[in-house]
Each structure stands twice: as C-alpha cells, then as structure tokens.
Amino acid sequence: MHRRSLATSLAAFLAVLCLLQPASSAAEDVGVPAPFPLTAGWQKFEDRGNVGVGLGLYTPDNKAAWKPAVVPSVFSGQTPESSFRGTVGWYRATFKAPEKTPGFTYDIHFEQVRRVAQVWLNGVRLGRHEDPYVPFDLQVGNALKPGQRNVLVVRVDNRKDGAIREGWWNWGGITRPVTLVPRAALVLQTPGVLSVVDCPPGGATDGAPCTAKVRFDGVLVNRGDSTIENPQVRLDLGAGGAVTQTIPSRPLAPGESTHLASEVAVPDPQLWSPEKPTLYDVTLTTSAGDRMQQVDTWKTGLREVKVRNGMLTLNGRQLTLRGASIQEDVPGRGPALKDEDIAGIVRDLKAVRANVTRAHYLLHPKLLDALDAAGIMVWSQAPVYHRDVRLKHPEQRETALASVRGTILSARNHPSVITHSVANELSPTPDTVPGTRAFLAAARTLASELDPTLPPSVDMLSYPGYARQAAYAQYPLLGINSYFGWYQGKKDHSVANLADFGPFLDRLRRQYPTQGLQVTEFGAESTYSGPVTEKETYAFQTQYLKDVLAIIDARPFIGGAIYWTLREFAVKPNWVGGHERPGVKRDSIHRKGLITYAGRKKPAWQVAADDFGQTPLYRTVSPAAAAGVPEAKGGGGSVLAIIIAVGVIGLLAVDGWAIAGIWRRDGRLRRTEQRRRAGKGKGKGGDGIEPAGARAL
Questions:
Q1: How, if at all, do strands 477-481 and 456-461 pair?
Q2: Which of 5, 63, 404, 426 could form a disulfide with 382 if both were Cys (CB 3.0 to 4.6 A apart)?
Q3: Helix axis angle, 6-13 relative to 365-374, nearest 10°?
Q4: Separation of alpha carbons 250 and 265, rounded Å
Q5: Domain boundaries 306-677, corresponding CATH code
Q6: CATH, domain range 33-179
C-alpha cells in the first residue's frame, strides 16, 4: 500500500527529496494523535543457532547479550559466501509509548522486513509476516502500555529456501522504517487516489484538451464494538481544496468492511510528465459522524498511460523510454537506504539522462516519492521471478498473487509508475505450463482490478523460435529481457549472436501486433580494460550498448530500452555473469552496471548518457500515426517498414526485412559478432538466458 497514513507521512517528511506535506499538525488539529516513529532504543541479537525462542528472547526483560543497533539495518553489510543462505536475528526496541488518546489505539507499521518477521510487544505475540518486499501492519490491541515503557521484539528469519529464485543478494534485517500508526474504530485501508486522464492521440491541443478525473478507492473497516452510523471519507485534491468530494458509506456493524469507490472531475488539469512533473496535494479525512478517525496525505500527479495501436503513450504522445534499472543496494548497508542514498540514486539517474528506471521488486516509498518529483518514470514490478516450478502449486500461486497485490497497492498512487509488471522471466511457453498460465491469467485480472488506470505488463525471456503465447498476449504491455550476443541461450534457441536480435524483435512484433513492446533488460559484464572483441572488457560493454541501442532504434515499434543496471550490486556467491575466464576468481558482485559497486563510472556510462540525452522523450508521428497508425521510421541510417493490416481489431503486421538497409546493418553486426566470438569462451546452456546456474539463485 503506498498510502500515506499519518505515520508514513511523518517518516516521508524526513526524506531529502520527498515532497509530502507533514500530516501530524493537521492530525492534531482534529484530535487524531500523531504517529510515533520507532527510530531509537534498538538492540540486536545474533541467533545463528536458532535458539532464541527457547531462550525467551521475545519476553521484555530477558537477560540475553543484546547489542546496540540501528533500524533500518541489515544483519551484515558484507557478502561472504557463508551468509548467503541466511540466518536468524532478533531486534528489540525499548520505548516510552505516547499517552492514551480516547478512542484511539495503534498499529505497528513495518515498511519492509527481509524475509520472515515474527513480532511481540511486551511479550504478547502480535503476528507473523512472510513477504520480504511489501509493507505490513499489525494491530497491538491491549498489548501497548500508553505512557509507559514498552518493549517491541522482532524475530527476523532470512534463511532462504533454495527453490526461491531471486536475482539479488539475500539480505536479512528490518530494512525500512517502523512506526506506531494511530487508529480509531473506523479505519480506511489501502486508500488510492488514481488519475483518470483522457488525452487525444498525439497529445492535447487548444481545440482538443485533455480531461481529467481522480478515482478514489479504499476499504472502510469498523474495528470497534458498536455500529458506526455515518462513516464517510472526504477527498481534498490540490492546495486550498481545488477539488473536494465526500464519499459516504452505509452503516458498518462491528467487524464489517465495505469497499468505496468514486470519481470526481478535475478542472483545468495540470498533467504530470517527465519534463514537467506537476504534483497535487492529496488529503483523505475519514470520519465517523462528526468525529475524525484518520487523516492520510501524500502527493500525486495526473497522467494518462495507455497502449495505443501497439505503442506506449503518455498523455496521448508516443514514448521513447531510455533508462537504467536499479537495485536497492549500497555497500555496507544493502537495501537499508538512508536519505542520502535515495538522493544519490536519483542524482545518478538524472546524470545519465534516464527518463525511466526499473526494479525487480517494490521500491522504497521515499525513493518513489523522489522519482515522482524528479519526473523519472518507473517500470514497477512484483518480485515473482523464475517461479514456474513453484507456480505449479495452488498455494504458491496464491503467495505470488499476494505479492502482486501488495506491490500494486503500494505503487499505484505514484504518478511516476507507468505500469505494474506482475512477473519477470517466467517460462517462454506458459501456454503449456498450467500453473504459470493460471497465475498469469489471475495476475492480469488482479492488476486491472487494483489499478484500472495503467496497462498491466509482464517481462519475458527472449529466446528465438517459440510460438506466440496466449498467456502473454492477454497483457497490453510486454517487457523484453534480451541478452543476445552475451549469453548462449538454450539448445535450439540460441541467443549467442547479437545479429539475431533484430530478426527476433521483428518476429515478436508479428506475434504480438497490438502490444506495447519495450526492451526492459539488456547488458554485459565489464571488469577490466581490453580489446573490444573480448567479452567482459569495458570496450566490449561500451560497443555492446551502442549495438543493442542501434538495433532497437532501427525498429520504431519498440518503445524504448532500459539497461541492466545503473550500478553494480551484490547478487550471489561466485557470480559468473555469463563469461568465464580461466583462473579468475569470482565474487558476489553483479558487474553489468554502468557504475561500479564502489561508485566509479565505467566508459559505457558516457555512451549511455549521450544516447539517452539525444533520444527524444516523445516520438514524432505523422497525422495518420496520431490518429492511430504508427509511422515507420528508421534509425542509424536504416529504415524499417511497418505494414499495417487494418482489421476489426486493428492488428499490425510487420515485415521486418522490407528494406535492404536492415540487411546491411544486421550483416555488419553479424560479422562484428563473429569476429568477437572467434576463439572465445565456451558458454553453457541453462534454463534461463544465462548459463546453467548463473541466475538460479
């Protein structure tokens, strides 16, 4: 849930780039208590033998050898092989609770705990949470002692099931803030204020402006012991209440809940975009009769994101994405980001002139706030990664769908988020994998229910030779993860030759003629200076970046490219990365980044910055294209013809080799690749694009 409850609002106020308004003063004016961030009084206990429960570490006054700690933090900021599989650790916070406010109690809000959290307050077990990437709340009930000393204990178990595949280090700890959130009898859960914008094709003009509404969505719950007769939520949008609407609810008996939804028009809308990231203040005031129960505040933006005739558009204009993905991983702290880390990530994205970024899991809410303010778009994704084996089981599909749900609810209020991707690199043939097929269908429905204002997406493996998959065709937006010319691929589905990437894209367009297609992942490791023909050199990475972008530019039906990744990060012990050099010892660091783990920019950085800066954000289209027919345009001196076969559903059919210039470009790429590969490594096959084991984390 990216809602800004009072607690979360106060925490966000402290961020360097966060533009949220502080909610505590407004809350106090109406008698709602202020939030209570748990930022001090923390201790930790290493429990490598998993004996803490038997020692009674959850009791408030146990005599174990606790050590001072800070929260957020990880168990260890180092990445030795011995710690990758995880361990058990305990956190304890001793604090004096706020005085009692009549009619209110508190929940404890955890922004993130990796991986499994068990929580006690003053020896009373509050609950358990198992998703390491989404926030969660626990009710404290009578366990909290107002105005007195309290002891919160959290057992964190980050021991990793080997069947769970993740493309990043297995960090453990309380990695984001913890806050006491005031709660009354009436609670508004998962509030959303989403933008419903309608722009003409090609964007607004004086004669055809964009129109806008905001859509409120949330769940009201009566947690009290008597019926609430007049529950309601008031929405205020914009400074001074430019838009105000009251959304009433039916009476709620104890324990009852109801879903509320409503829309209200926004006059003279000022739209959010990368070149002008306009933000509106949002205030939601929840009341029971004339008594305030809850106040939620954040900032949002109004924008239209659609796939029109196979092209991703923002506010009616065709986008050209250029950017780099990120991992929340800072040396010594892992994902336990400080405000300066968040500012640094945004600064680096702006320096490389990125208009978009991507991650494999829900980003920190402060980072999303900062990206909103900076005008950098986000390809948001649930951490459902290489899960086909687990998705065979109904309970594992439910777990994956719960992760999709938590990710979307947390991301949907951010204008920078342009899609909700439900998974990354599942089977290339999900139509023949029943569990994966069932998950993709359910996730598609869920994403559209939770946020109907954005096109849902899925990020696919790129192997040539596979047929069109109905399970993927149901998504209006497809991410293409490509390592043509870097990894070897699968038997009979080779990706070893970069010159095969262009034909693959052409065939993909014929298979998915109405989907928006974006290259969401590509990259090459680099660690040393050497010849351009030698994999893993800085020169090879630099040329590889140029060549991949040239292939994409030659195909205007591809809506852009996102490099993997902006900065190096910890991935797993003995990471190979796709190219094995005899006698070279490997570490746990993923080396495809444009910036080293230590923060040094590689030569490919400048190539990326130049290309990203010179690529227009919006594609210039002809009047016919603005009316719904994309115009064929060349790139790098080559022209690719796009043949439009207009039928009852406006399908596009692409003849990828209509122009001889493409043959010449790809012939040059093929010859260059052959020279590179002459006498080089023997790559391995695998069940992913990488060699076997390279990403089986």
A1: parallel
A2: 404
A3: 60
A4: 24
A5: 3.20.20.80
A6: 2.60.120.260
